[in-house]
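Entry under discussion copied across for reference:
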Amino acid sequence: MAAWQPVTLTGRLVTLSPLSLADAPDLAVAAADGRLWELWYTSVPTPEAMADDVAAKLAAQEAGTMLPFVVRRRGTGDALGVTTYCSVDRETPRLEIGYTWTRASAQRTGVNTESKLLLLAHAFEVLSCVAVEFRTHWHNRQSRTAIAALGARQDGVLRAHRRQPDGSLRDTVVFSITSTEWPAVRSDLRSRLARHSAPPSPQA
C-alpha cells in the first residue's frame, strides 16, 4: 500500500511533485500562459478557480481515487502544469493518467514526453499496473495525436459520455498501454526524448 502514496518523480527536464494548495498561485500563472481555460474541449480551471480545483483533486486523493502532481521545470522551479493518476483500481491494478494540462510555452518542448515516461515507469515498474489508460475529448485532436504518439492504442469511443461545463455532451476517446507493451513503449519514449534534447546538426 505504501507504493500508492504521493511520490516525487524526477527527470532531466521536469519534476513531478505531490500537488498542494500552495501550488495554486503558480498554477494560476501557468494556466494564463495561453489562456488554456478558453479551449472549450478541455477542463483547465481559470486562475480564479485554481485553488478550488486543487482542493478538489486533494479531496480525491484523500478518497484514494487520485494521485495529483504539479509539473515543474527543473532548475527554475517554474510551474508548467498538472497531471494525475486517476480512476485508480488497486485490486487489478490499473489506473488512468489524466486531468493533464501544460502551459502553452512548454508544449512541444519534451516536457510532456518526459512527464509521461516518468508516470508510466512508476505505474508499471513500481505499482505493477497491468494497464494504463488515457482518455480525451473526441474534438481534442492535439491530445489524441499526442496520446497515440506515446504508443497507446485506441480502445474505443464512449459516445455522449459526459456533460461539459457549457452543457454540450462529450464523446470520450479511450486509449491504453498494457504491461506487455510497456518495454517497447519505454524504449520509444527514451529515444524520442534523446532526439528532442540532442543538439542541432551542424550547418553544411
User: Anything to note?
Assistant: Residues 2-196 form a domain with the Aminopeptidase fold (CATH 3.40.630.30).
